[in-house]
Design brief:
Number of domains: 2
Bound molecules: zinc ion
Cofactor: Zn(2+); Mg(2+)
Radius of gyration: 26 Å
Largest sheet: 10 strands, mixed
InterPro entries: Alkaline_phosphatase (IPR001952), Alkaline_phosphatase_core_sf (IPR017850)
CATH superfamily of the largest domain: Alkaline Phosphatase, subunit A
Number of helices: 15
CATH topology of the largest domain: Alkaline Phosphatase, subunit A
Helix content: 25-40%
Family: Belongs to the alkaline phosphatase family.
Distance between the termini: 18 Å
CATH class of the largest domain: Alpha Beta
GO molecular function: alkaline phosphatase activity; metal ion binding
Strand order of the largest sheet: 5-6-4-3-7-1-8-16-2-17
Structural class: alpha/beta
Protein name: Alkaline phosphatase
Strand content: 15-25%
Length: about 550
C-alpha cells in the first residue's frame, strides 16, 4: 500500500499550524529590516508559432479540463459501480485498438482516443498472482473482486488453498464485491462475451480451488454454474448475460443451436434458476438469442438470465455469423444498465470483454483488437447512460499479452499492415520495408504462440487451433495482413500465445476514481470500489 497523498498533505498543514502556535507563545519578535526579495525572473516567452500549434492548444485545453474535474473522497458516494475488464487488454492492445478505431473512422489513428481514454484518471496495475509472475485470469479476477491476491487458477479462495484442493477451499472462501452489494440490497449484474462460468465473471459469485470446475466438481464441492444459480447473498444476481449454456444443461439436452449440454448430474440449471424465482411476484426472464434479447421488457423484468452461446460468445467481428443471433457487448451493457438502474439503492456490475484474450491466444490481432474496440464502445454506452456524480466506472485488464507494436512504421500506417518506413527526409519510403532476411514484416507480432497462418476472410480466430505451430519468419509478401483471417508471426513456438507479465492500465471516472492513479496492486481495485461504493461498513 502506498502512502495516501491526502494524509501527507494533512500532515504538512498540521505542522504549519503547530509552528504558528509556538510563535504566539514566545511574545513579539524584535523588528528586523526585511531583506527585499529579488524580482522573479520574467521567464522566456514562447514563439507565436509554438503557441499556435494544435498540440500546444490541445494541451492548454486539457489543463483546463483537468482543473475542472471534481474529486470526491466521500465513502459511499458511488451509488453505482461498474467494473469493465478487458481480458488480456494490455497496454499495447489498447494502443493498437486506439489506432485501429481511428483508422476505421478514416483518421490517421494514432491521435484517436478510445472512450475510456477520455476519463480523467488513469494508473497502472501490477497483475502477478501470489505464485506466478505472469498471471492467469482466475487469480487476477479474484484480486479485483475480493481485495486479496491469490494463486493462479483459483476463484475467490485465498492463497493458502492449493489448486484443486476441495476441502481446503471450503475453509478459506473470500467474500466478493458482488456479494457485498447484494447484501446491501443493491442490484447486481455480470456480463461477459466469454462463458459466464469462465474465470473472470465466475470470480464474482463462485468460490472454487479450480477454475475448470464450470459444470462438475468433486464430491463435497459445488461446480461454478450451480454456485451462480444458488448464490445466497441477497436474492442472487439480478442480470446475467454471456455465453456458456453448456454448463447449465445436462448432456442429454441439446440447445437451440444444436449443441449438447455438459452436465453429468442430469440437472437442468436453467430450469433451476427459473424455479428459484417462481414466487408469483418476481418476473424472471430466460433468453438465449438475439430475438429474445430484443424482446426484453425492462419495466416488467426483475431477473434476467441470457445465455447466448453453448461456449463463448462469438468474436465481435464474427458475430454476424451466429446461428441464432446474439447481442453485442455494448448492447448487453446498455440493457443491463437499464435493468439495474431500476433499483434506487444502486448496483454493482462487472462487464467483461472476454475474447480479446482469446484472439491473442490464437495469435489473431484482428480479433483481439476488434473486440477491444467493441469494449470501448460498451464503455461509451456506460459513460453516456450514467452520471459521474454517482457512478464509478473503472476500466482495466486482468493481464497483458505478448503482442508488440514494432518497427518504425510511418504515421498512419495501417496498424494491422506491413511496415512502411520513412526515408532519411522523414517521408514515407515507397513500398514495404524488408527485414534483413529480405522479407516484409508486420507492425504487430507476438513473442510466442502458434504463429502465422491465413484463413482468408474468416473472423473466427479459433480456426488457428486446427493447424500445427509454425513459429518464426514466414514470407508474407502475398498476404493481406489486414484481413480477418490473418494470424501474426510468433518467435517462440507454443501451443497458444501466452499472457504478458507487465503492468496493465486502469482508467476511471466518478466518485473515488482519483484513488486509482499511481501504480497499485490489482487487489487495490476492490478497496476503491468498496470505499467509493460504501460496500463495507467500517
Ligand atoms: Zn488468457
Amino acid at each position: 500500500m502506498q502512502p495516501n497523498r491526502f494524509s501527507v498533505a494533512f500532515a504538512a498543514a498540521f505542522a504549519i499550524t503547530v509552528a504558528a502556535c509556538s510563535d504566539n507563545n514566545s511574545g513579539p519578535a524584535p523588528q528586523q529590516p526585511q531583506p527585499q526579495p529579488e524580482p522573479a525572473p520574467s521567464g522566456l516567452s514562447l514563439p507565436e508559432s509554438q503557441r499556435a500549434s494544435s498540440w500546444y492548444q490541445n494541451g492548454e485545453a486539457a489543463i483546463a479540463r483537468a482543473r475542472d474535474v471534481v474529486i470526491n473522497n466521500e465513502r459511499g458516494a458511488a451509488k453505482n459501480v461498474i467494473l469493465f475488464v478487458g481480458d488480456g487488454m494490455g497496454i499495447s492492445t489498447v494502443t493498437a485498438a486506439r489506432i485501429l478505431a481511428g483508422q476505421l473512422q478514416g483518421e490517421s489513428g494514432e491521435e484517436h482516443q478510445l472512450s475510456f481514454e477520455k476519463m480523467p484518471f488513469a494508473g497502472l496495475i501490477k497483475t502477478y498472482n501470489t505464485n506466478q509472475q505472469t498471471a492467469d485470469s482466475a487469480g487476477t479476477a479474484t484480486a479485483m473482486v475480493t481485495g486479496v491476491k491469490t494463486k493462479a487458477g483459483v476463484l475467490s479462495v485465498d492463497e493458502t488453498v492449493a489448486r484443486g484442493d476441495c476441502a481446503a477451499s471450503l475453509q478459506r472462501p473470500l467474500t466478493t464485491a458482488l456479494e457485498l452489494a447484494e447484501s446491501l440490497g443493491k442490484s447486481t449484474g455480470v456480463v461477459s462475451t466469454a462463458r459466464i462460468t469462465h474465470a473472470t465473471p465466475a470470480s464474482t459469485y463462485s468460490k472454487v480451488p479450480e477454475r475448470g470446475w464450470e459444470y462438475a466438481a468433486p464430491e463435497g464441492c459445488t461446480d461454478i454454474a450451480t454456485q451462480m444459480v444458488e448464490l445466497a447473498a441477497g436474492d442472487g444476481i439480478d442480470v446475467v448475460m454471456g455465453g456458456g449454456r453448456r454448463s447449465f444443461l445436462p448432456q442429454e439436452v441439446t440447445d437451440l443451436e444444436g449443441k449438447a449440454g455438459k452436465r453429468i448430474d442430469g440437472v437442468n440449471l436453467v430450469e433451476a434458476w427459473q424455479s428459484r424465482y417462481q414466487d408469483g411476484v418476481t418476473n424472471a426472464l430466460y433468453i438465449e438469442d438475439k430475438n429474445g434479447f430484443d424482446g426484453i421488457d425492462v419495466a416488467s423484468t426483475d431477473k434476467l438470465l441470457g445465455l447466448f452461446e453453448s461456449s463463448h460468445m462469438r468474436y465481435e467481428a464474427d458475430r454476424k455469423n451466429d446461428v441464432a443471433g446474439e447481442p453485442s457487448l455494448s448492447e448487453m451493457t446498455a440493457k443491463a444498465i437499464e435493468l439495474l438502474s431500476k433499483n434506487d439503492r444502486g448496483y454493482f456490475m462487472m462487464v467483461e470483454s472476454g475474447r480479446i484474450d482469446h484472439g491473442h491466444h490464437a495469435s489473431s490481432a484482428y480479433s483481439a483488437l476488434t473486440d477491444a474496440v467493441e469494449m470501448a464502445n460498451a464503455v461509451q454506452v456506460a459513460m453516456d447512460s450514467t452520471s459521474a456524480e454517482d457512478t464509478l466506472i473503472i476500466v482495466t485488464a486482468d493481464h497483458s499479452h505478448v503482442m508488440t507494436i514494432a518497427g518504425y512504421p510511418t504515421r498512419g500506417n495501417p496498424i494491422l499492415g506491413k511496415v512502411v518506413t520513412n526515408n532519411s527526409r522523414g517521408e514515407p519510403e515507397p513500398g514495404v520495408a524488408l527485414a534483413a532476411d529480405g522479407m516484409p514484416y508486420t507492425t504487430i507480432t507476438y513473442a510466442n504462440g502458434l504463429g502465422h497462418a491465413h484463413y482468408g476472410s474468416s473472423a473466427d480466430a479459433d480456426d488457428r487451433y486446427e493447424d500445427p505451430v509454425s513459429a518464426g519468419r514466414q514470407d508474407i509478401s502475398a498476404s493481406d495482413t489486414e484481413s480477418p483471417g490473418y494470424h501474426q508471426e510468433a518467435l517462440v513456438p507454443l501451443g497458444g500465445e501466452t499472457h504478458g507479465g507487465e503492468d496493465v492500465g486502469i482508467w476511471a471516472r466518478g466518485p473515488g476514481a482519483h484513488l486509482l492513479s499511481g501504480t497499485n496492486e490489482q487487489s487495490f481495485i476492490f478497496h476503491v470500489m468498496a470505499h467509493a461504493g460504501g460496500l463495507i461498513d467500517r
